[in-house]
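S.,

As promised, the succinic acid run. Input:
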Amino acid sequence: MINMETKLGPLKLINPVLAASGTFGFGEEYASLVALEKVGALVVKGLTLKPRQGNPPPRTIETPAGMLNSIGLENPGLEAFLSRELPRLRDAGVAVIVNIAGDTEDDYITLARELSAEEGILAVELNLSCPNVEKGGILFGTSPGTVGRLVKKVRRACSLPLIVKLTPNVTDITELALAAEKGGADIISLINTLRGMVIDIHARRPFLGNITGGLSGPAIRPVAVGMVYQVYRAVKIPLIGMGGIMTAADALQFFMAGARAVAIGTANFIDPFTIPRLISDLYAYLESQNLSSMEEIIGAAHQQL
Ligand code: SIN
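Predicted complex:
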């Protein structure tokens, strides 16, 4: 009997394949294609207290084996999320994780508190890693002191499982992971995008309206696998790994590096059926290896040393 159920500290999921924040919106555009209730969890687009229009266009560009985005956390804000998106997701039986972002520490605290009072939310993911905003996001995510303090404050306000999403744009990601763990995070998700730039040589200026953007897709996968591997050795709390996963074989690298679940991002834009395909391919992998759950391969790459 194969069991795809996944436990991440206090969080229980039907399977370990999540939709990464910002790549599945609030699920509406995918609802006619994918059985949303079968997705391990949908991490919704980064939510802020007030609606945000995001950055000036162009906001995306394809790059070798990936893409750059500088969306700037466009979202409808808390009120519209609670009145419009959440009831629809609840009715559809979707496992919802809410990625939250803010300009100030208080924004994060208020969001976490308000969301904790709502039915149908599985967990909160603190976005301390968006590279495309002038306030908050990555600015809260690169110093262990700031991460530790903010996580501690949000922890007090949040009765839901707390995930902290880390940026790779640092010298040593383990320091941030340790600070998040010490602050009271239940789970760490990694990695968000790597800051980068494309220059339009005809216009002789940066292509993106926001000048820089965040790089995602297969180009960043080895960086992500390496960071999951490092963080797994540093902390005791469970990890959600992401960064350029396109196939079950890619996902297996993350499990073997130490992730207990994986999130699919850029691949959703190329093939909206990536998540259901991965779930069944991972199932087939376990069957072929005579394994009964992913549990048996988590961190396997560490045992070979
Ligand atoms: C964005 O909205 O700019 C991307 C979100 C993120 O990187 O967290």
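The chain has one domain: 6-303. The CA atoms of residues 59 and 84 lie 26 Å apart.

- D.
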